Amino acid sequence: MSEQARLLAREAAQWLALQDAGELSAEQAAELGRWRQRSAAHEALWQKAEGLRRRFAEVPAPLAVACLDRPDPGRRRLLGQALAVGGLLPLAWLGYRQLPVASWRADLRTATGERRGLTLPDGTRLQLNTASAVNLDFAQGRHRLQLVQGEIAVDGSGPVQVEVEQGLLQAWGAAFCVRLDGGRCEVAVSRGQLDVQPLAGATMRLRAGQRLSFGVTGAHASETFDVQLPGWQQGLLLADNQPLGQLLRELRRYRPGLLRWDPALERLRVTGTFQLDDTDRIFALLAASLPLQVHYRTRYWVSLAPRQLAG
Questions:
Q1: Which one, of 158, 93, 32, lies nearest residue 300 by Cα?
Q2: HSE of 172 in the Cβ direction (CA atoms, 13 Å)?
Q3: CA 238 to chain centre
Q4: How many angstroms separate the first and last alpha carbons of the chain?
Q5: What is the phi/psi pair of residue 231, to 5°?
Q6: Beta bridge partners of 133
Q7: Using CA atoms, how far apart are residues 172 and 192, in angstroms rounded to an integer?
């Protein structure tokens, strides 16, 4: 699904959520009407979403959950239709997780804005970042993780493998992060070393303080980074003279719903350390330090615009 189609699906899901939360105000109803009239694609998606909602509303909640694990062809077709419009029902009724079926069925998963840490059977410490999903394989002496979506941090004292769509990572007593982003895999090692085996190209070894981005067709050159800087594992988002647009795109990963901003704000520069557990506080800090204002249509629909000068 293209980014434009995904955004359209998220907008439709937001309107569904608003509609289900209660009667729309006259202004909201008028705005929904204008949204539907923007294009034939808008109206077609809205009709499809409402149809899916009606069909799912007829299924009791426990059965709706159970059907995800059943091989019934009719249920698979219904689920496939939901996926065809960008997971509208999970977005609207399950906190905008936007996880595909493989992620729903993963051994471990987190929702948007959620982070989770646990110790695996071999003593490895695993952290899942926002909207992430992982499968575990520790049978017959294996120490393998499969990252299905999102981002993880691994801190182990022994061997561990991480399988991704783009290849395989093999580490020995290492601490590292792995992130899937736009068809590429990003790896950063903070302690020890690991080998990166892309599906295409030669195996590469990364040591502490090195990071690498690679895809199914090859890898970029590795680069260095400061392993002492805190990050999402500590619940922090750091910005060092960073373009605001880049910061907001990262922040969008941690906040369910819609986050939009005026293109005029894209190149404003930001420096600071922000707490990921309070995104509303981040917006308040940005508004206090930059020439912008924050508009909340709902808790799940936030827009940033240039600040209007008085008089």
A1: 93
A2: 2
A3: 18
A4: 45
A5: -150, -150
A6: 109, 149
A7: 7
Q: What phi and psi, each to the nearest 5 degrees, are found at residue 78?
A: -65, -45
The torsion of the CA quartet 51, 53, 57, 61, rounded to 10 degrees, works out to 140
Nearest to 159 by CA among 138, 180, 177: 138
Q: Which residues contact 181 (CB under 8 A, 6 or more apart)?
A: none
* pLDDT tens for each residue of the chain, 311 residues long: 555 666 677 677 767 766 665 667 777 788 888 888 888 777 777 777 776 666 555 444 444 333 333 344 444 444 344 434 444 444 443 333 344 555 667 889 898 899 999 998 888 999 999 999 999 988 878 899 999 999 999 999 899 999 999 999 999 999 999 999 988 999 999 999 999 999 888 899 999 999 999 988 877 888 999 998 889 999 999 999 999 999 999 999 999 888 999 999 999 999 999 999 999 999 999 999 999 999 998 888 999 999 986 44
H or E stretch covering 48: helix 40-57
Q: What does pTM read for this prediction?
A: 0.68
Q: How many Cα atoms within 13 Å fall on the side-chain side of residue 118?
A: 12
- Phi, then psi, of 23 in degrees rounded to 5: -65, 130
Look at phi and psi of residue 288 and say left if phi exceeds 0, alpha if psi is from -120 to 50, else beta: alpha
C-alpha angle 114-115-119 in degrees, rounded to nearest 5: 145
């006259």: which residue's tokens? Answer: 26
Residue type, 2: S
Q: What is the spatial distance between Cα 311 and Cα 298, in angstroms, rounded to a whole number?
A: 28
Tokens read off for 151:
């981002």
Q: Give the containing element (helix H, strand E) for 241.
A: strand 236-243
Structure tokens at 30: 């008028």
Output the six-digit token pair for 86: 């960008």
Strand partners, 127: 117, 153
